[in-house]
Design brief:
It is built from four helices and five strands. It has 174 residues and is an alpha+beta fold. Helix 2 runs antiparallel to helix 4.
Length: 174
């Protein structure tokens, strides 16, 4: 197991120095799911929610969050993202929204935290916009799906450490 990079030799928190790292293409994908009552999802899909286009608002919130990750997570670097995508898909179960995010850049450090932050904030925005009609919504399974680039190369969830459930992205385990 690798050592924690955000701790110095004294065990104190620090921002990782990436000065000497090569600039490479980097990309990360993350997911989140928000479960809700079927009626809540119906209102969202049919555009009947009193707050307007809930999915568009969550998409914009996710994009904005990726761009502000360094303001939210203390030791993250401020990054010049070249692409942020947030896709929201109503679940086949009729009671959830699946969120998948993708962040890209050419830089000296990865974009995993930006992808995870985008997925989390998009889900939280859906919760915020729909809480008046469904307080029991559950944000679930926020996780990194894939990262590419940098020294550690290409990583895909469920293929390296065996600790994840191995479900297909966008599905919920039974």
């Amino acid at each position: 197991m690798s050592k924690l990079t955000h701790l110095d030799e004294k065990g104190e928190a620090r921002m990782v120095d990436v000065t000497e790292k090569a600039v490479t293409e980097r990309e990360a994908r993350a997911e989140a799911t928000i479960r809700m009552q079927p009626e809540t999802l119906r209102m969202i899909i049919e555009g009947e929610h009193p707050k307007g286009d809930v999915l568009a608002t969550a998409r914009i919130a996710g994009i904005m969050a990726a761009k502000k990750t360094h303001d939210l997570i203390p030791l993250c670097h401020a990054l010049n993202l070249t692409s942020v995508k947030v896709e929201l898909t109503p679940g086949e179960d009729g009671a959830s929204v699946y969120i998948e995010t993708r962040c890209k850049l050419s830089g000296q450090t990865g974009v995993e935290m930006e992808a995870l932050t985008a997925a989390s904030v998009a889900a939280l925005t859906l919760y915020d916009m729909c809480k008046a009609v469904d307080k029991g919504m559950v944000v679930d399974k926020v996780r990194l799906l894939e990262k590419k680039g940098g020294r550690s190369g290409h990583w895909v969830a469920g293929t390296h450490d065996g600790t994840l459930d191995g479900t297909t992205p966008g599905t919920t385990p039974a």
